[in-house]
Amino acid sequence: MRSVLSEYHDPNDRRFHAQPIACPACGPDFFLQFEQQRLEGGAESIAKAANLLAEGKVIAIKGLGDITSLDARNRAAVMALRERKYRKEKPFALMARDLEVARRLIELSPEAETLLISVARPIVLAPARQQLPEVAPDNHELGVMLPYTPLHHLLFSAGAPDVLVMTSANRSNEPIAYQDEDAQQELSSIADAFLVGQRPIARRVDDL
């Protein structure tokens, strides 16, 4: 039987790619690009990103994949994102800080709640308990998920709004920008700031 440690060193094992051994001293780390400033260091850049989200800014986040995020309750920010992405009516997915916030957003049956907190961390579609018409125009349901990476938990812990719009980092009908050298140029008209992780993204996958 293989040891768990060996799985972290085997490129053919999912743990090698999804759960690398790292620490705050040796990385991988994050930096924040905002206006003409680049803020190095994970803790500082994540804290600044959380503050910018609270101020209504749109942030492109590179973690496991490229995601555009903003405060879901900030009507002006949501409408600005729709205009920038050329996404007129299609609903946005939401990320709730925790299960209690999700319960206030949507009506969760026992089955839906079990699905929401499962390891897969899917987007769960359920009847809305709060009205967010800019997020899901003419819909009586909201698609909600819970944090699925450590970065999401760190953002919420740093003071990010408790409900975030999470959508792919691209304009409608265009491919996702996932390589560092392209993302900031292609998304400069969409995002106000960029929170960038050092780990490369192997391929683009769009589920939002």
Give a written overview of the molecule.
With 208 residues, the chain is an alpha+beta fold. It is built from 8 helices and 9 strands. Helix 3 packs across helix 7. The mean pLDDT is 86.
Question: At the first level of CATH, what is the class?
Answer: Alpha Beta
* Count of all domains: 1
Task: Please name the CATH topology.
Answer: DHBP synthase
Q: In the CATH classification, which architecture applies?
A: Alpha-Beta Complex
Main beta sheet, described? 9 strands, mixed
Helix content: 25-40%
Mean pLDDT: 86
What is the rounded Rg? 17 Å
Give the percentage of residues in beta strands.
15-25%
Question: How would you describe this structure in keywords?
Answer:
9 strands, alpha+beta, globular, 8 helices, DHBP synthase
Note the topology.
Blueprint: H1 4-8, H2 14-18, E1 30-34, E2 37-40, H3 42-54, E3 59-62, E4 66-71, H4 75-85, E5 93-96, H5 99-105, H6 110-116, E6 124-127, E7 141-145, H7 150-157, E8 163-168, H8 180-186, E9 193-197
Parallel strand pairs: 3-9, 5-7
Antiparallel strand pairs: 1-2, 1-9, 3-4, 4-8, 5-8, 6-7
Helix pairs in contact: 3-7
